[in-house]
Design goal:
The complex is a heterodimer. Chain A has a two-stranded antiparallel sheet with strand order 1-2. In chain A, α4 packs antiparallel against α9, α5 crosses α7 and α8 runs antiparallel to α9. Chain A has a single domain, classed as Orthogonal Bundle (MetI-like fold), CATH 1.10.3720. Chain A is mainly alpha-helical. Chain B has a single domain, classed as MetI-like (MetI-like fold), CATH 1.10.3720.10. The two termini of chain B are 45 Å apart. The model of chain B has no long low-confidence stretch (mean pLDDT 89). The chains are: A mainly alpha, B mainly alpha. At the A-B interface, α1, α4, α5, α6 and α7 of A face α1, α4, α5, α6 and α7 of B.
Chain lengths: 284, 292
């Protein structure tokens, strides 16, 4: 073994170097976006419209787009995920529940670009035909696909939360003659609410942070959306679309505000999640 | 609680499970049906003879081979860069840090894990452009830049995997070597790390999967639609997920579209297999520790 001290130093260096990564990314973003923050245009950029021809580079519509798409994804995924978690943990036959859990675990491995690809050629035409309006590229299509993307994360979190309730409590319900559903409603859910809330936060973070699904099937319109059948552009898709612009242009500078907004949103989520469930910090 | 409400809840759990399974089946089934006509060696090697392509003697012009090779190079470089750092940091967090220091470190790692991949891509791209202007005009978005940015992205997976595997080792394994007079470092590298190896490997494989599937980072940092096989670390490259994205918006004819379906199916299978292996390793470790 090399000297004890030397190895300790190397391990510590690895840890602190890794720890600076998150800080470095933040500092570089803030430094490059500094001209906008310094000139006091921040509010204007955050709420204004995107009209490059009139030299207005607001990202308000993209923030709205992000919230619509992520909100819809969460709205669709949460009830289904709760149902699936209940099925796995209590209401389903044991064998089937285990099978579903394995399937859900494998689902976390499906690449988001594959969801986007299938979305374009399967879901978008479907939306177009059913609602007979526009191209089918819409918040609805993106929300459904994104819901499918985040559902496994939610389900696994919920299952873990339900499973963490002490066995004695569940046995007590059974001993009193309670059914599995009564056990779920009166004992498991009230005790697991922190884990469930943490799952919601994590799912929302994943939905906000995903790029490919929104980029490929949300339509990327810069107008603020008014209904779920409208196309919309998310912050992430906006970054992907504008990056080709000139590095020193004002368009490009606003990207760092997008980046910082995303950074702030997901960091808030991380902090909230740590508060909620210090025990459930598994990798998604 | 009324019987009707109970039945409704049970019914809902069945319905939502069926909906989920149905949706996944629709996604995978659709891909399978659409890519079936394209599934043959020509999908990967085009009109180039397979052996010639594998020996790098002839270029593949109309197949997925360059994109697959690009993804392989990318994954190896990115994970190679992140591996020593991630595992070292994981060991440090699990075995050396305590109290506030540990909380601070894990908070920073969690923040890093939460950063959307497009933001990491933007960071990599901006840094490259900045260095191009101010350091050397020879610095361009390239395989190396993509690999570096991806290394940032997967670092948390490696750290958490290592940390969790070490922390879950039972105390009885932990105390044997020190009781026999081993130093802390000997205990870590001769006993704890070997015992936790399946768990650590599970994190590594998860990281490989994330590198292989990520599109947002590489589309900003050097992936292009046609570059052939990657020639150097400083050149642009093709990659499977970027190819899928590119085809979805730019396909010219049904043949290209079929290739896109084929590429999506291949990526899906590769990633699902990696995740399955990662899970299996994790379960193996848990089982081994329970039995002993």
């Amino acid at each position: 073994m090399p000297s004890e001290r030397w190895m300790h130093g190397a391990l510590a260096a690895a840890a602190f170097l890794s720890a600076t990564a998150a800080v470095t990314i933040f500092i570089i973003m803030a430094a490059l976006g500094w001209p906008i923050l310094r000139d006091g245009h921040l509010l204007q950029v955050l709420t204004g419209p995107w009209l490059p021809l009139r030299h207005q580079y607001g990202i308000g519509a993209m923030i709205l787009g992000t919230l619509w798409v992520a909100g819809l994804a969460l709205g669709l995924a949460v009830p289904i995920s709760l149902g699936c978690a209940a099925f796995i943990q209590t209401t389903g036959p044991r064998g089937l529940g285990g099978l579903l859990k394995h399937l859900v675990q494998l689902m976390t491995g499906i690449p988001t670009v594959v969801y986007g690809f299938v979305g374009i050629f399967l879901l978008v035409p479907l939306v177009r035909d059913v609602f007979g309006r526009g191209s089918g590229l819409s918040i609805l299509a993106a929300g459904v696909m994104l819901g499918l993307l985040i559902a496994p994360t939610l389900i696994l979190f919920f299952v873990e939360g339900l499973a963490a309730v002490p066995r004695a409590h569940r046995l007590a319900v059974s001993a009193l003659g309670g059914t599995p559903v009564q056990q779920l409603v009166y004992v498991l859910l009230p005790q697991a609410w922190r884990a469930i809330l943490a799952g919601l936060v994590l799912g929302f973070g994943r939905a906000v942070g995903d790029t490919m699904i929104a980029l490929m099937i949300a339509g990327n319109s810069v107008a603020p959306p008014a209904s779920i059948l409208d196309p919309a552009r998310t912050l992430t898709a906006h970054i992907a679309l504008i990056v080709a612009a000139d590095f020193d242009s004002p368009e490009f500078r606003t990207l760092f505000v997008c980046g910082l907004t995303l950074y702030a949103l997901t960091s808030l989520g991380v902090v909230a999640m740590r508060r909620l469930a210090t025990k459930h910090l598994e990798a998604p | 609680m009324r019987a009707a409400a109970q039945r409704a809840i049970t019914a809902w759990s069945w319905i939502s499970s069926l909906l989920l399974v149905g949706a996944v089946a629709a996604v995978i089934g659709f891909l399978l049906v659409k890519s079936l006509p394209a599934l043959n060696p020509r999908l990967i090697f085009g009109s180039t003879p397979v052996l010639e392509a594998l020996l790098l003697r002839a270029p593949v012009l109309d197949g997925l081979w360059p994109a697959m090779a690009g993804t392989c190079f990318l994954v190896v470089t990115a994970v190679g860069l992140a591996l020593p750092l991630g595992i070292g940091a994981g060991i440090y967090v699990a075995e050396y840090s305590r109290g506030r220091l540990k909380q601070g470190l894990t908070l920073l790692f969690d923040l890093l894990a939460g950063i959307p991949s497009i933001v990491v891509g933007l960071f990599g791209f901006s840094l490259t452009v900045f260095l191009h202007h101010h350091l050397s005009p020879r610095i361009y978005p390239s395989l190396l830049v993509s690999a570096l940015a991806l290394a940032f992205l997967v670092l948390p997976y490696l750290i958490r995997g290592t940390q969790a595997a070490l922390e879950n080792l039972p105390a009885r394994i932990r105390v044997i070597a020190p009781a026999l007079g081993a130093t802390k470092m000997q205990n870590i590298f001769r006993v704890l790390v070997p015992q936790a190896l399946d768990g650590i490997l599970s994190g590594v494989i998860l990281a490989i999967g994330r590198c292989a599937e990520d599109t947002a980072v590489i589309m900003l940092t050097g992936a292009v639609a046609s570059a052939g096989l990657p020639k150097s670390l400083l050149g642009s490259f093709e990659a499977l997920p970027f190819y899928i994205y590119y085809i979805s918006s730019q396909y010219m004819n049904p043949k290209e579209l079929r290739q896109g379906y084929g590429a999506a199916l291949i990526l899906l299978i590769v990633c699902a297999a990696l995740f399955a292996v990662s899970l299996l390793l994790k379960n193996l470790l848990a089982q081994r520790l329970r039995v002993r």
